[in-house]
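Q: Could you write out the predicted structure for this multi-component system? I'm mainly interested in how the pieces pack against one another.
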Amino acid sequence: MSKKSVLAVIAVAIAFLLLALAIQGRARLPWLDRAIVAIAAPVNEKLVAVSNNADSIRNFFAALTTMQEENKKLKSEVETLRYANIQMAEIWAENQRLSNLLQYKNEAKNLKLQTAKVIGKNIGDIKDTVLINIGSNAGIRENMAVVNASGLVGIIDETYPDASRVLLITSPRCKAGGIVMRANSRVVGVVNGLAGGDAVLQMSNMARDADIVEGDIIVTSGFGGNHPSGLVIGTVSEVSLNVGGLLKHAKIVPTVDFGRLEEVMVVTDYQNPSNLIKSDKDANKQQSGGPVK
Amino acid sequence: MSGLIWPVFLLLLLSLQTSWFALFPGNNLTPDFLLLFVVFHAMFSGSNKGALFGAMVGLVQDVLAPTTFGFHIVTRALVGFFIGETKERVFKDNAQGYFVFVGVASLFVKISHFILLVIVTASVSGWILDYFIGTIFYLFVNLIVSLPMWLVLQKIGTWLEKRDSY
């Protein structure tokens, strides 16, 4: 037997012995275990990390594709929601305007009002007329007052079967009787537009000692009999004497925002407050059995 | 039939101009489509036809907004006449020329309107600043709209020319 064969037999015998001891749990070679783990663990860790990174990259690309799809979906959703939002805002604004009109309609019991929509504006350079969508077929007649929740808008200038042209109070051509609302003043004058724009109105034909001051609210006087009294026109912003110094005139800032006119109401019939007082008296007399004149 | 195209287009522009506030609510800027149309027509048809066309467009506006009847007729006819005068002198097939003419015509209309207002109101206090700001916006909006307007009018004009040449 050669030397190599003897060594081989010994090595196999030792290996079997170690295996037998390991199987029986008597010797697990902890030092060898630790040494191997000490060498392999960092390498293993690195490999796992690399693998994890690879996973992340794979996931990243997978996520990117998903995200792109999601992004598209979200963008389309955002667009839909934005459109819905605009629609809602539009409806809300319309609702607000109509609520104001309705509130005004309920409060102004002495006025018979017909609601109309503005269908045309800016016809020419002098932007002092608008078209509304009701006309003579709906009982609209020339010179009827047109109002909105803020106050007097203008008067009916021309009627067509299904539309009417409104001459705005800002027109130099439109003149209405105005009165200072303050109880201890009640100065009367003629209100008209200055330049057709929506900035300023003018109240003229007032005596030089007329009691009118900045901040006074001007309402329609109703003296001409064409329009109801008490419709708000605007607030006095400046008072001055005319060139000769004999008459006073005032600049008035209108309460109506003429740039945003969309709905208006036409006063088709009215009772002035003085008549209301009279009719109340008549009603009382009727109740008490007295004569009614 | 082709002769009806311009009147129909004029009515379309009138409707667009008067309902612009509803299409773009919240602002008070409306392009003067009819003036832009007069400028275009005058550039290609000369002083006499330009003035006549301007007067017709002005008549439509004056009938609808008669506060100072005749103002639109006169101003639009003058715009049509003077821009028509340049027919033989200006190279018309580019948008720049139209752009400049729109600017000049817009300023002319606003200055004429200003003079009218000074005569009517006998005063400039209380409204001149608003008027000045309004003029700037009017000019700005007209210039912006002039470019798409040029493209549309050119297309219609070219189409009509081709149609008539057969």
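A: Regarding packing and overall arrangement: DSSP finds three helices and twelve strands in chain A.
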